[in-house]
Amino acid sequence: MAKSLEKWQFGDFQTPEELAKRATKLLREKHKIFPDLIIEPTCGKGAFLRASLSEFKYSKIVGFDISEKYVEEAKSSLSKYLNSGNATVCAEDFFSMDWNAFLADFSGYILVIGNPPWVTSSDLSILNSNNLPSKSNFQSRRGMEAITGSGNFDISEWMLLQHAQWLTKREGTIALLCKYSVARKVIKQVRKKLGNRFSAFIYLIDAKAFFGASVAACFFVLSTNGDDSSDCKVYNDLKSPHMLHVISERDGLILKDTAKYEKWKHLSGQDLRYTWRSGIKHDCSKVMELEQVENGLFLNGMGQKYFLEKEYLYPLLKSSDIGNSRTNSYRKLVLVTQKSVGDDTSIIKNLAPNTWQYLLEHDELLKRRKSSIYKNKPRYSIFGVGEYSFKKWKIAVSGLYKKLNFCIIKPIDNRAVMLDDTVNFLSFEAEEEANFILSLITSKASLEFLDSMIFWDEKRPITIDILKRLSLKAVAKELGLLERYLQLAEVLRANSSG
Ligand SMILES: C[S@@+](CC[C@H](N)C(=O)[O-])C[C@H]1O[C@@H](n2cnc3c(N)ncnc32)[C@H](O)[C@@H]1O
Q: Where do the DNA methylase adenine-specific domain residues begin and end (predicted)?
């Protein structure tokens, strides 16, 4: 197997000496940890074993790794330490090791330290690798899905949950380098299963500098010497840690910044008048998205040109347009085959025969759309469409971008602009109303409230679930604009009843 593939399947990013030293020192100096037993379950070449020998002179240390070569390398690197007799290193597969038997007779304070593999289960299935929890020592992949809430999980997440199991009836600390998102998932799982048994701390690290990896990562400390609270303190780094914010659960939500949330939580509440939506989903951009070549002539994603009616074509803006505030012009149009989900599409045949013919010609590609949402639906169905899609004015924010960049979307060529399914938006009949609501959403109060709940390292940080927690009515009240807000509501009601 090519070296890099092997490295990938074992999530093999060896910790630089300096980072292991800093992290271990922090445990002794700041967390006042004095372990009887230190376990490094995936010790690799042994950076954390060496750091532990230096910082914890009298602790017993055991290291394991699946790679015999690394185990040998680690072993020989320890011999120069005066207390090297305290350490043993063995080749073991984490997933087949009998950890219960190993820990059975031990009653002292345990420190689980290290840097577990940086790989996800879906990476491993692409690699056809078996480096996964087996069915025998873990109920099954299904079981993992039930625990992590996802079919794709980080191997380190599973390992961390195992470590937490070891400490359900023992005293100790788990202190590992992992993705920031993994640490948060583990906190959530541990709180759910074990309540507030552990106190939690996250020290952000610069993974690019230490590992050349573009991922938000941290040194994650879970300890039974706790303050019995569900808070997790987040620090900027390991060297001179400065507390950035406190992650916690409040009102059933996981919050990034508890203090900010407390300041603005009176802005939360469901807004019945304004409903956040996501844009159109069609899963076949080659066919459904077209560029206008000249009046009436359109080019699809396969380089084919067709004369199509304009009835079903709408300007399309995507996350990259919204994220970069490019909202005055469009590059592509999208075929919107329905006014609402489930509508009969056969009417297109009479209303726009060229468009129908075009769809028929690409029937095979459209039929091949994998998602089960298209099963047993009218042919050429789309999703994320409704009356709201055709309103001329919108406020949009990209779910993928790392910035709360709300944009006004105005009609182009007198047509409502459609958005793709990575964009979240509100829609309005009138420009004035859209502008007023934009002023509420972009107020400091709203932005701080939303930011207190957004984890920017997520793949899709800005979700409808978060946006809908903001009550625009409450924001209007906060800004002394409630009357204006209600006035608009009255106008709307008058219009809709008239
Ligand atoms: C991210 S590296 C870190 C190594 C070491 N902990 C350090 O801090 O430098 C992950 C290590 O996990 C080991 N590993 C991967 N899968 C394993 C398994 N199933 N059991 C034990 N070790 C494993 C790899 O060989 C690799 O050395």
A: 9-235
